[in-house]
């Protein structure tokens, strides 16, 4: 559970080294069954504390009975805990041998591959990766080179080196400390190496945070009230070239706007020479069947639209429907059966720049956001974090967005209904005065700097760190077997 406090909003990032180091130390002296059990306990502490916000979503806002909500959350935590449990079993079962191989080589590599596996298996749940915890520290700047999994690798490697140092003490002190020194000082040195460059003048962008509760938002009687509030808030940022409303700010199809509302939006855009990006639920007839999309559309010179590609399982679509249909009948989540947008979509063109759009959960997947590059000069994420109440989730999501900014070398604009709304610069920092207070109706203007160019991560994606980790895994297996044969020969 210590590891939870390494992440936002606590930011005690050294705990992301201490906590895995304790686990690695335990694994070194444990047999496979014991390693599995201790990995499972580690997962129960991490995910039991770190993703407990799921209960808020399914019980408070999903209208699920509390016994079923507790059961669903416990099952989710148990499934997530199986990842460190299986890693513990694998490293003890197939790599028992020299500590330098098992600990220093194997454990950081297998941990990184385990995080990546968790990010795509069954649609993926890349929460609480070690790399995200390092946003206040120097290691996070390696994200521009290796992505978040590279930062996870270096964090886990630091933990493994400390364990090696603790066990071998004087014999390895210079080796261990030298490697730690290189990767940590290197983080300081690479933080602004200039992979991307500023292009054009900064763009004034209006961020509008409506602050409606989930129950208010999905009540059709409140549509006019919500529209009026967003218009009033938008008038406070009329000097902005682009005004952004959050995910599903209009929880209905834009075609259902009343004629006077459409005219009002168009008049606002013309009068103040602004363009709008608005989150909405889009309806579209496809082959005689009505489909729903979680979309973002523009109001301005020319209509454009982005449709969400990576949907939230159980929140926006039903995986394995023949198994889980009974569960969805127990949950009353509005619009929980969306269709996917196309995997490849162009950035939206506004104010002479290209805006790479993501909606909510999509900014947890760095490999998907870089598809918008190099064309996109600014990244935008529209979110709805009211589902999580006053839990840790909005803070964890903001931390992910900060890493996305570093990976891409772009400003990331994040707009949420209840927050956290902010502008993040290309170094992953939130400039003073450019984060809105949570749970308040708020509008502010931020100045985003468009950028061009590609970081190494944006150019190559996750492949370098995955191939490197796989190579280390194979090398560890070879060394383990070779050492085992030598020990057997000497023993005979």
Give an overview of the whole structure.
- About 45% of the residues lie in helices and about 15% in strands.
- The protein is α/β, with parallel strands linked by helices and about 500 residues long.
- The protein has two domains: about 1-195 and about 460-490, no CATH class; about 195-455, Carbon-nitrogen hydrolase (Nitrilase/N-carbamoyl-D-aminoacid amidohydrolase, 4-Layer Sandwich).
- The strands form three sheets. The protein has a six-stranded mixed beta sheet with strand order 6-5-4-3-2-12. It has a five-stranded mixed beta sheet with strand order 7-8-9-10-11, covered by helices on one side. Strands 1-13 form a two-stranded antiparallel sheet.
- Strand 8 (about 355-360), helix 12 and strand 9 (about 380-385) form a beta-alpha-beta unit.
- Helix 1 crosses helix 6 and helix 4 (about 65-95) runs antiparallel to helix 5.
- It is globular, with a radius of gyration of 24 Å.
- The model is unreliable at about 485-490 (pLDDT under 50).
Q: Which CATH first-tier class of the largest domain would you pick? A: Alpha Beta
Would you tell me which CATH topology of the largest domain applies? Nitrilase/N-carbamoyl-D-aminoacid amidohydrolase
Helix content: 40-55%
Structural class: alpha/beta
Low-confidence stretches: 485-492
Shape: globular
Q: Mean pLDDT, as a whole number?
A: 89
């Amino acid at each position: 559970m210590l590891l939870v406090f390494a992440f936002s909003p606590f930011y005690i990032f050294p705990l992301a080294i201490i906590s895995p180091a304790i686990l690695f130390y335990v694994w070194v002296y444990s047999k496979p069954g014991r390693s599995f059990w201790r990995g499972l306990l580690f997962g129960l502490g991490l995910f039991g504390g770190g993703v407990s916000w799921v209960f808020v979503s399914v019980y408070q806002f999903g209208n699920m009975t509390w016994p079923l909500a507790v059961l669903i959350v416990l099952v989710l935590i148990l499934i997530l805990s199986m990842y460190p449990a299986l890693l513990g079993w694998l490293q003890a079962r197939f790599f028992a041998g020299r500590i330098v191989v098992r600990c220093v080589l194997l454990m950081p590599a297998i941990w990184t591959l385990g995080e990546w596996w968790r990010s795509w298996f069954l649609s993926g749940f890349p929460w609480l990766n070690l790399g995200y915890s390092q946003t206040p520290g120097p290691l996070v700047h390696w994200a521009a080179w290796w992505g978040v999994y590279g930062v996870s690798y270096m964090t886990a490697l630091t933990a493994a080196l400390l364990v090696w140092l603790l066990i071998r003490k004087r014999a390895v002190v210079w080796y261990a400390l030298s490697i730690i020194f290189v990767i940590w000082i290197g983080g300081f040195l690479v933080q602004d190496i200039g992979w991307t460059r500023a292009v054009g003048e900064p763009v004034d962008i209006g961020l509008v945070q409506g602050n409606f509760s989930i129950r208010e938002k999905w009540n059709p009687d409140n549509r006019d009230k919500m529209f009026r509030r967003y218009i009033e808030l938008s008038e406070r940022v009329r000097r902005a070239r682009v005004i952004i409303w959050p995910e599903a700010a209009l929880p209905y199809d834009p075609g259902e706007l009343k004629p006077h509302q459409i005219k009002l939006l168009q008049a606002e855009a013309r009068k103040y020479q602004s363009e709008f990006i608005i989150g909405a639920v889009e309806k579209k007839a496809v082959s005689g069947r009505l489909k729903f999309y979680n979309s973002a559309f523009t109001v301005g010179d020319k209509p454009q639209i982005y449709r969400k590609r990576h949907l939230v399982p159980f929140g926006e679509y039903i995986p394995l429907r023949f198994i889980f249909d009974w569960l969805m009948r127990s949950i009353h989540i509005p619009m929980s059966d969306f269709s996917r947008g196309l995997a490849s979509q162009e950035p939206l063109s506004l104010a002479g720049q290209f805006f790479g759009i993501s909606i909510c959960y999509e900014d947890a997947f760095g490999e998907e956001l870089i598809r918008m590059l190099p064309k996109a000069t600014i990244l935008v994420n529209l979110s709805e974090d009211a589902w999580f109440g006053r839990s840790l989730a909005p803070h964890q999501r903001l931390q992910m967005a900060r890493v996305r900014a570093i990976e891409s070398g772009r400003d990331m604009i994040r707009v949420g209904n209840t927050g956290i709304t902010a502008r993040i610069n290309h170094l992953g920092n939130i400039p003073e005065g450019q984060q809105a207070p949570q749970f308040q109706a708020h509008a502010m203007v931020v100045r985003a700097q468009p950028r061009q160019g590609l970081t190494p991560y944006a150019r190559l994606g996750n492949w370098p760190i995955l191939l490197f980790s796989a190579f280390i895994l194979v090398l560890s297996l070879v060394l383990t077997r070779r050492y085992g044969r030598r020990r057997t020969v000497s023993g005979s």
